[in-house]
Amino acid sequence: DAGITQSPRYKITETGRQVTLMCHQTWSHSYMFWYRQDLGHGLRLIYYSAAADITDKGEVPDGYVVSRSKTENFPLTLESATRSQTSVYFCASSEVWTVTAEQYFGPGTRLTVT
Amino acid sequence: AQSVSQHNHHVILSEAASLELGCNYSYGGTVNLFWYVQYPGQHLQLLLKYFSGDPLVKGIKGFEAEFIKSKFSFNLRKPSVQWSDTAEYFCAVNAADRGSTLGRLYFGRGTQLTVWP
């Protein structure tokens, strides 16, 4: 199906483990984004990417690593998971990135770090 | 930093009741405003958006929102809700940093709407 998908949808991991969240989009959008959603904070931007091999930090990048070797994929890696990274993670994409651009969101990944 | 406030964290209504969800933002420049909705188990999807022109914008599924610049508000309304409107609603503001054309999307914390049949 066309659109933006995330995997896994649910993940439980232990403190200190590395975990990778996957994001895949079929529109060939240039821009991709990772957000986390926490109670009391809404969605906050972790990292974004303007194109393959171009990434930059957002509002809350600490403890996360991203890569973008292909336009359609934008994985997010927690190198050593901490309990504070328990959250719902949303991936998004957009064709352009201007003040009028709409972002299209994936279904989210609910991550629990024990 | 820009901020978006949604004062209603959880709203519970009966079917056919009217809905108004508040959204206020702090940014003095030009903004573009969005309401997103997330139905249970589904993607975040766009309900409506405001860029310019008529401050009363209509979206999908009978929703509308009014931009009041003097109040920095963009409240979402629906005259008669249905059980299927049960979802989480997010207000978002896309605001460019000074001297930039890149928009940064700032979200409110979301409002959970529960509609009882």
Percent of residues in helices of chain B: under 10%
> Which two chains have the most extensive interface, and how many residues on each?
A-B, 26 and 30 residues
Oligomer description: heterodimer
- Main sheet: strands, sense, barrel of chain A: 7 strands, mixed
> What class do helices, strands and sheet pairing of chain A give?
mainly beta
SSE topology sketch:
The complex is a heterodimer of chains A (114) and B (117).
Chain A: E1 4-7, E2 10-13, E3 19-25, E4 31-38, E5 42-51, E6 54-57, E7 64-66, E8 76-78, E9 87-94, E10 104-105, E11 109-113
Chain B: E1 3-5, E2 10-14, E3 19-21, E4 24-26, E5 31-38, E6 44-50, E7 56-58, E8 64-68, E9 73-78, E10 87-96, E11 103-107, E12 111-116
Parallel strand pairs in B: 2-12
Antiparallel strand pairs in B: 1-4, 3-9, 5-6, 5-10, 7-8, 8-9, 10-11, 10-12
In short:
Chain A has 114 residues and is an all-beta fold. Chain A has strands at 4-7, 10-13, 19-25, 31-38, 42-51, 54-57, 64-66, 76-78, 87-94, 104-105, 109-113.
Describe the structure.
The complex is a heterodimer of chains A (about 110) and B (about 120). Chain A is an all-beta fold and about 110 residues long. In chain A, about 0% of the residues lie in helices and about 50% in strands. Chain A contains no helices and 11 strands. In chain A, strands 2, 4, 5, 6, 9, 10 and 11 form a 7-stranded mixed sheet that branches. In chain A, strands 1-3-8-7 form a 4-stranded antiparallel sheet, with no helix packed on it. Chain A starts with a strand and ends with a strand. The relative contact order of chain A is 0.33. The model of chain A has no long low-confidence stretch (mean pLDDT about 90). Chain B is mainly beta and about 120 residues long. Chain B has no helices and 12 strands. Chain B has strands at about 5, 10-15, 20, 25, 30-40, 45-50, 55-60, 65-70, 75-80, 85-95, 105, 110-115. In chain B, the strands form 3 sheets. In chain B, strands 2, 5, 6, 10, 11 and 12 form a 6-stranded mixed sheet that branches. Chain B is globular and about 45 Å long. Classes of the chains: A mainly beta (about 110), B mainly beta (about 120). The interface between A and B is medium-sized, with 26 and 30 residues.
